[in-house]
Automatic annotation (TrEMBL), chain A:
Protein's name according to its UniProt entry: Simple sugar transport system ATP-binding protein
ABC transporter domain boundaries: 8-243, 260-504
Organism of derivation: Paenibacillus forsythiae
GO molecular function: ATP binding
Pfam family, one: ABC_tran
Keyword Transferase among UniProt keywords: no
Keywords, in A-Z order: ATP-binding, Nucleotide-binding, Sugar transport, Transport
Automatic annotation (TrEMBL), chain B:
Spans through the membrane: 12-36, 112-134, 146-167, 194-212, 246-267, 279-302, 322-344
Predominant location category: membrane
Cellular location(s): Cell membrane
Protein name, per record: Simple sugar transport system permease protein
Source lineage: Bacteria, Bacillati, Bacillota, Bacilli, Bacillales
């Protein structure tokens, strides 16, 4: 980079919390016009470090220099003053407000006593053009897509004059297309002289977009490398401290009889629009069927239909030969169906219940957990103790609320609960979303272990890599219809991509 | 609504305790501004409650319906609903108890009283169940339906009393032969109107606790209250739980009604307007952080303040309405937890620091 002083320099930052050193003498430099990735597992200390830079925490030791001058950042306002902007993972937007209103919130331009919306909107439009953001200044937040909302967050920092942008896990909520667009925006930002710190645990993104990457493990800097001089395996190993296999190890499948069979399933949503459209496929014992598709093509509705959360209008869904369409979720669970839901906070867990209570969320009414109408606490607790041990769920205690667990451990808890029911069919919807490499490996291994035990596994994922690596067979869904089935060994990303986009009807090799 | 639930369902007793102290301070400040002596006022309040066995008994009488309506609101709250309709449920309970008590007067007392009490609970429960049903099956917000049902209950109760139970020329029903009075305590409490309703209220709190935290059905109800989506995913029948929880909430309120007509007045009046038991119940439930034992303590405090306020006006010449300012401030401070936390900050700082990670 340039010989000038780095835009941000962190020197030997140490931050301690009782019982833990979150940041242990971390040093990091951000050059002008650079995208610098901060890589680490959940809980490695990335967020703490960025909260220090953004003024939410004070370091116990060490110093921060901005443009070569030592500074003390004691509040987010100070950070903004110094040209630091943060794009949070969870957006901080007012839904019913317009884009412009959200952007100027707190720094409204005034004309007399009134807010000068006209000039504000004009300024927003100019910024949008400059960085290729294509945001409509007058759209309301609840009417625009998640990707657009994120751009509004970016504009908020730009509007406040940020030169240093911190992106906290920006792609966690985005679709593959939106991710590509975000990458382009980030490139545009650095081309215009901004500098970016990117917090993530997605190696692919780092390799595509970052110039340099600093790997943090347990609060310590392991290494800082140029992406041009490293590879994903190397980065993953540094991040988790051991070798990680991306190619999932698995034996050829031992396929048995069909377990789940969908035939001509149709379902409409409340607006009368068809969301499942003459949809048919089957999952056999001992195989993993991957459902590939772009978000919003009926994946959620498909799973809801199978699990009894959505009524279907016509067609049949059978489980081991028995019709289960339009039965209640309880009745379907009792037909040996387990379900790792897409949204673990909304469906998977009662966050304010304890870990122990969540472990019996679906089986609480059965003996021995339920004894004559009373909950058998000792047995429920023992059951939870056993599960957290077997599945390595890290929690201070089984009586801790599920809310206080990390995302990876919440997911482990759900997987433990669902697998322990010994299902014939395991439905896994986006099982690795938002998890770090170590946890992803764990989840995928569990799915394969289930398949090796002769269970039928239905995997729905937006991550093409996951579909390709884990599935034995792939069905592509487009506009609520299975447009083709392929085997992963006989296809490639291009072919799948075309099928997902609806422009190729059937793969080169039909699965059924 | 969800946020409201979070504020009032936190299991922390420190905030209410500090809120009570702050509320008393605000009351004192208002008295000072008005030229009254707060120390004398609070002393008068205290003396009124504890000054004589009769007054003490009457204070308990005052607390009893508050306990039950408080439990009613709190129970619904725990399963995710805001029961504004305890008032109407009390009235329906009263009316059921009066009708049974008067019209079945031939039945022996040892059967008649339980029958009237059960009838009051049952009809109170069914009345609340209407709102539960509409919410579960039609998605109608229970806040709106319970408020509307309050008015329906008021005029229905008055209609029944006027048409079937009235003493001609008076605005009240005949005397009810069935009585819940604790007559054997008359000598101890100097004929204060104590009745079995107090015992029922305490038993109801125990039932509340055991049912919600120890039983299978309670597990479902709490899950539905905390996360209906996850409850549905886990195979629970969300609608049925909503109806059931409203029914039980209504039973509590209905029992409060039975205590008032069978234990205190021994007749039922034609009400000009809402008697207000249910609305005090909301305050009590919030003050008691919607925990059954908290509700009992809150009802005791609320009852003491209300009953003692008469003493304030008598002995210290302070208008009894002032006590409403105290109660209002207490609830304000519980809702505005931020203020309480801010007050507590110097004491808390050390402990909080350890909690950060």
């Amino acid at each position: 980079m340039s010989a000038a002083a780095p835009v941000v320099e962190l020197k030997q930052i140490t931050k301690r919390f009782p019982g833990i050193v979150a940041n242990d003498s971390i040093s990091l430099t951000l050059e002008k016009g650079e995208i610098h990735a901060l890589l680490g597992e959940n809980g490695a200390g990335k967020s703490t470090l960025m909260n220090i830079v953004f003024g939410l925490y004070q370091p116990d030791e060490g110093s921060i220099e901005i443009g070569g001058k030592p500074v003390i950042i004691d509040s987010p306002n100070k950070a903004i003053e110094l040209g630091i902007g943060m794009v949070h993972q969870h957006f901080k937007l007012v839904d019913p407000f317009t884009v412009t209103e959200n952007i100027i919130l707190g720094t409204e331009p005034k004309k007399g006593l009134k807010i000068d919306y006209k000039s504000a909107a004009e300024q927003v439009r100019k910024l949008s053009e400059l960085y290729g953001l294509q945001v409509d200044p007058h759209a309301r937040i609840h009417d625009i897509s998640v990707g657009m909302q994120q751009r509004v967050e970016i504009m908020k920092t730009l509007y406040r004059g940020a030169d240093i942008l911190i992106f906290d896990e920006p792609t966690a909520v985005l679709t593959p297309q939106e991710i590509n667009e975000l990458m382009a925006i980030m490139k545009r930002l650095v081309a215009e002289g901004k500098s970016i710190i990117l917090i993530t645990h997605k190696l692919k993104e780092i390799m595509t977009i970052a110039d340099r990457v600093t790997i943090i493990r347990r609060g310590k800097v392991i290494d800082t490398v140029r992406t041009s001089e490293t590879n994903p395996n190397d980065l993953a190993e540094k991040m988790v401290g051991r070798g990680v296999t991306f190619k999932v190890d698995k034996q050829p499948p031992n396929i048995g009889k069909a377990v789940l069979k969908l035939d001509g399933v149709n379902s409409k949503n409340k607006e009368g629009i068809s969301v499942l459209n003459n949809l048919s496929f089957e999952v056999k014992a001992g195989e993993i069927l991957g459902i590939a598709g772009v978000d919003g093509n009926g994946q959620s509705e498909l799973i809801q239909a199978i699990t009894g959360l959505r009524k279907i209008d016509s067609g049949s869904i059978t489980m081991e030969g028995k019709e289960i369409a339009n039965l209640s979720p309880r009745k379907i669970t009792e037909k040996n169906v387990s379900h790792i839901p897409e949204d673990r906070h909304k469906h998977g867990l009662v966050l304010d219940f304890t870990v122990s209570e969540n472990m019996v969320l679906e089986t609480y009414y059965r003996s021995p957990y339920n004894r004559n109408g009373f909950m058998n606490k000792d047995i429920i607790d023992k059951h939870a103790e056993k599960l957290i041990r077997e599945f390595d769920v890290r929690t201070p205690s089984i009586h801790t609320s599920a809310r206080s667990l990390s995302g990876g451990n919440q997911q482990k808890a759900i997987i433990a609960r669902e697998i322990e029911k010994n299902p014939s069919l395991l439905i896994a919807a986006q099982p690795t979303r938002g998890l770090d490499v170590g946890a992803i490996e764990f989840v995928q291994k569990q799915l394969i272990a289930q398949r090796d035990q002769g269970k039928a596994v239905l995997l729905v994922s937006f991550e093409l890599d996951e579909i390709m690596n884990v599935s034995d067979r792939i069905a592509v869904i487009y506009e609520g219809h299975i447009v083709g089935e392929v085997y992963p060994e006989n296809t490639n990303d291009q072919e799948l991509g075309l099928m997902m986009a609806g422009s190729l009807k059937q793969g080169g090799n039909s699965g059924v | 609504m969800f946020k409201l639930k979070k504020i009032f369902a936190t299991d922390s007793y420190i905030v209410p305790v500090v809120a009570i102290l702050l509320g008393l301070l605000v009351g004192a400040a208002v008295m000072l501004i008005g030229g009254y002596d707060p120390v004398a006022s609070y002393r008068a309040l205290f003396n009124r409650v504890f000054g004589s066995p009769y007054d003490f008994g009457e204070a308990i009488r005052e607390m009893t319906p508050l306990m039950l309506t408080g439990l009613s609101v709190a129970f619904a709250f725990r399963s995710g609903m805001f029961n504004i309709g305890a008032d109407g449920q009390v009235l329906i309970g009263m009316t059921a108890a009066s009708v049974i008590g008067i019209k079945l007067a031939g039945v022996p007392t040892f059967l008649l009283v339980p029958l009237a009490v059960i009838g009051a609970g049952l009809f109170g429960g069914l009345w609340a169940g209407i709102a539960g049903y509409l919410k579960a099956k039609r998605g109608i917000n229970e806040v709106i339906t319970t408020i509307m049902l309050n008015w329906v209950a008021l005029y229905l109760a008055n209609y029944i009393v006027r048409t079937f139970l009235l003493i001609p020329g008076q605005n009240r029903s005949e005397d009810i032969p069935a009585s819940m009075s604790l007559t054997f305590l008359n000598s101890v409490f100097d004929n204060a109107r104590l009745h079995w309703g107090t015992v029922i209220a305490l038993a109801a709190a125990v039932f509340f606790y055991v049912y919600l935290w120890k039983t299978k059905q309670g597990f479902e109800m709490r899950a539905v209250g905390l996360n209906p989506h996850a409850a549905e995913y886990a195979g629970m029948n969300v609608g049925r739980n909503i109806i059931k929880s409203m029914f039980i909430a209504g039973v509590f309120a209905g029992l409060a009604g039975a205590g008032e007509v069978l234990g205190v007045f021994h007749y039922q009046s034609v009400f000009a307007g809402s008697p207000g038991y249910g609305f005090d119940g909301i305050a009590v439930a919030l003050l008691g952080i919607t925990h059954p034992f908290g509700v009992i303590l809150a009802a005791i405090l609320y009852g003491m303040l209300t009953y003692g306020s008469a003493g304030m006006s008598f002995d210290a010449n302070v208008p009894p309405e002032l006590i409403r300012i105290v109660i209002g401030s207490i609830i304000f401070f519980i809702a505005a937890q931020g203020i309480v936390r801010w007050v507590l900050k110097p004491f808390y700082f050390k402990r909080k620091k350890e909690k950060v990670l």
